[in-house]
Amino acid sequence: MVSRVIPVDTFDLVIFGGTGDLARRKILPGLFRRYCAGQMPPEAKIIGAARSEMDAAEFREMVREAIGEFGSAPQSAGQLDAFLERVFYEAVDAKGDGGWDALKSHLRDDAVRAFYFSVAPSLFGDIAERLNHKGLSTPDSRIVVEKPFGHDLASAKALNATLAQYFDETQIYRIDHYLGKETVQNLMAVRFGNTLFEPLWNAQYVDHIEITVAETVGVGGRGAYYDKSGAMRDMVQNHLMQLLCLIAMEPPAKFEPDAVRDEKLKVIRALDPVEPQDIVRGQYGAGGGEDSYKTHVENDRSRTESFIALKAQISNWRWAGTPFYLRTGKRLRARTSDITVVFKDAPHSIFGADAGRHRNVLSIRLQPNEGMTLDVTIKEPGPGGMRLIDVPLDMAFADALGTDTEAVPDAYERLIMDVIRGNQTLFMRGDEVEAAWAWTDPIIEGWEARGDVPVTYDPGGSGPEDALMLLHRDGRRWREIKV
Ligand code: NAD
């Protein structure tokens, strides 16, 4: 099955930071894939804007190389050249006056205008102000704002207030690329498209839920940035919280931006504060031929966590009493993201104690091999009485749908097309981001006040031993992080 391509209106997309890492690795190759898929209107323009002095020809060469290195579009002869004809460049100083008039001259009155802020967050306000004062933005222009959106509640509020001076909330697209992942959207399809799950999706039937986002890589060249952030700010406050919201939210009345975002916000607001004993922080040591975290960040006193596991509780009628265990970390055994819903035991076993303890477990794999597994209890074949075993109903989406995975847009492509369509459903609203920081801030402040030091863990495993204990003490076990 090849994914259906829905045309979008013609657009002028300005990428501030067009020469940067994110633009080269994700945004530009993604746009080329949309071009090859036939989704980009022929007159659409992509205009790189960054500090470097270069002309359009030099920028096109840079884009060609980026697509060669990071792109995966199945292309026919001449497609890349034709795409590059739609690519332009202007040197613009986000903090100064240079280049803005030239940039403006590229923009058409009858096209959707989108401005992608793929630059350091410290420049977001400067760019928003100049777009407005220099007359580049129109009432229905859109801005796309990259993460991190603030460093804490105060900075997120300040940034929201700055952007609000120049843009309406309906024009602001705060990107969390996790929400653009196919399987993440599938969470909503599974929950709200089936009658099977939703009646059981509550504390009466669900024992607990696990969300794991594991990486094999360390901080690498991002050490200096990461050390100021850590797993809580870099992953939990945004990506894991968004997954938690999609799992836990009430059914929105419609699949529409504010209906969905209202429900997500209610989940964040219903989260209990997290007690210190319900959090484990870790930092990877040396091993497997690689240096320790501290070596990478060149700070042998760093207290920043590269791993975190925590127990979150949602105080509302649906979830009171069902814990959500979240964990994420670097230099773990495998690169995997999954969500596991463990249902409670059947209320009474007619098979007696010998049959053992069996549970239904729904596991949704976000990566790799996106798919779903549902463990179902059946009779173990053969004579000798009634012995039960759990067997997985296993569905890899690529196999089940015969999907040409090359043709499925990746998260950035999908989200950029949503910006052009004017669909904010998969973007975070300002109040959502603030609520997430309001929950996160006291946790981080607690560590700082106590001088909390993360425990060292061996690379290549599943994180610190204490993280296993977090569930053991509740009589539970994490799903294994499998290669
Ligand atoms: P980068 O340092 O590679 O690129 C920065 C870009 O900003 C360059 O094009 C540079 O020319 C431009 N720039 C710097 N100062 C400028 C100025 N005064 N005026 C105009 N342009 C200026 O950064 P990056 O890794 O591409 O990240 C960009 C944004 O995306 C950041 O907010 C980052 O947090 C976010 N982000 C990046 C990644 C990633 O994988 N790289 C992932 C998620 C989010």
TrEMBL record:
Coiled-coil ranges (or none): none
Enzyme class: oxidoreductase
Domain Glucose-6-phosphate dehydrogenase NAD-binding: 14-186
Pathway connected to this protein: Carbohydrate degradation; pentose phosphate pathway; D-ribulose 5-phosphate from D-glucose 6-phosphate (oxidative stage): step 1/3
Catalyzed reactions per annotation: D-glucose 6-phosphate + NADP(+) = 6-phospho-D-glucono-1,5-lactone + NADPH + H(+)
Active-site residues annotated for this sequence: 239
Residue ranges of every copy of the Glucose-6-phosphate dehydrogenase C-terminal domain listed in the record: 188-479
Transmembrane segments: none
A Pfam family: G6PD_C
Alphabetized UniProt keyword annotations: Carbohydrate metabolism, Glucose metabolism, NADP, Oxidoreductase
EC number(s) given by UniProt: 1.1.1.49
Biological processes per GO annotation: glucose metabolic process; pentose-phosphate shunt, oxidative branch
Residues given in the record as substrate binding sites: 177, 181, 215, 234, 330
GO-annotated cellular components: cytosol
GO molecular function list: glucose-6-phosphate dehydrogenase activity; NADP binding
Binding residue positions for NADP(+): 17-24, 51, 147
Family affiliation: Belongs to the glucose-6-phosphate dehydrogenase family.
Known function: Catalyzes the oxidation of glucose 6-phosphate to 6-phosphogluconolactone.
Protein name: Glucose-6-phosphate 1-dehydrogenase
Name of the encoding gene: zwf
